[in-house]
Design a protein that fits this description.
By secondary structure, the chain is mainly alpha-helical. It contains five helices and three strands. It is rod-shaped.
């Protein structure tokens, strides 16, 4: 709107120009009334009594068609040739155009402002959604890490619990085996301890129980499964060795009869 020049009321045409313009307008109006009267008279003369309504409509169509053709043939005429009148009319039209343009400009500016506010709100909403998404992704990652850690801890605790139960069960089995062996396979009397002949000065070798022999064989097969053989010494009472070999609990080394191992019952 600032680019349009301001049109003031000081540029109004003189009184003579106004009167001249009014006289021309009255003259044109009188001509229009005369034409309208002639058309009405022409319509009443040709009106038929049998179909008055249709005839009236047809006359109106003819009149409008004639008027349309007349207007098509005519070229635009100036209302007045007075330069003051034309200047005043031109300024008035420019003022109207200026007002219309100012109204359009105001509407566009208001619309742009509204669009800018909407854009800011959408951008703010988008940023908030991105922050929420980042927060949710962070929470998801933390939750996954916690779940993995909890799963590992749970598996580790379960494994520890199973190992503890197996250890307790092993102790119970060993205790039950020890009680059974002590009751049914006691150590020989002291007079039966292994001594070397013709060497009374050397002390007698202390024999170990069948429970201890089995425990040595079990531990050897568990700790070194690739080399499960145990060397027989004087602390192993021969009847116990024969018992284990006879009932298939232990096996001799195929090349060294002084070495035995526990039968692989788990295979």
């Amino acid at each position: 709107a600032e680019y349009l020049p301001e049109i003031t009321k000081d540029s109004v045409c003189p009184v003579d120009a106004k009167e001249e313009l009014l006289d021309e307008c009255e003259s044109i109006w009188k001509q229009m009334e005369e034409c309208q009267s002639k058309l009405m008279l022409l319509g009443t003369e040709t009106l038929l009594k049998s179909d008055a309504k249709l005839s009236l409509l047809m006359m109106r169509v003819k009149a409008l068609t004639a008027e349309y053709n007349q207007w098509q043939k005519r070229s635009p005429e100036l209302i007045s040739t007075n330069p003051d009148v034309l200047l005043a009319l031109g300024k008035e039209e420019l003022q109207k155009v200026k007002n219309d343009l100012e109204m359009v400009l105001s509407t566009v500016q208001s619309k742009n402002k509204q669009l800018e506010e909407d854009l800011k709100r959408e951008q703010q909403w988008h940023e908030e959604q991105e922050q929420i998404l980042d927060t949710l992704n962070g929470i998801e990652e933390e939750t996954k890490t916690q779940v993995e850690q909890l799963s590992k801890k749970r598996a580790f605790h379960e494994l520890q619990s199973k190992m503890l139960k197996l250890k307790i069960y092993k102790e119970e089995l060993l205790n039950a085996l020890g009680e059974f062996l002590e009751e049914h396979f006691p150590l020989p009397e002291k007079g039966g301890s292994a001594k070397k002949k013709n060497s009374s000065e050397e002390p007698a070798v202390e024999l170990i129980t069948l429970h201890e022999i089995l425990e040595i064989l079990i531990n050897k097969s568990m700790t070194t499964p690739h080399e499960p053989y145990v060397t027989i010494n004087d602390s192993f009472w021969p009847p116990y060795i024969e018992l284990l070999l006879r009932y298939g609990i232990a096996l001799r080394h195929p090349e060294d009869p002084n070495r035995i191992r526990l039968e692989a019952f788990h295979m």
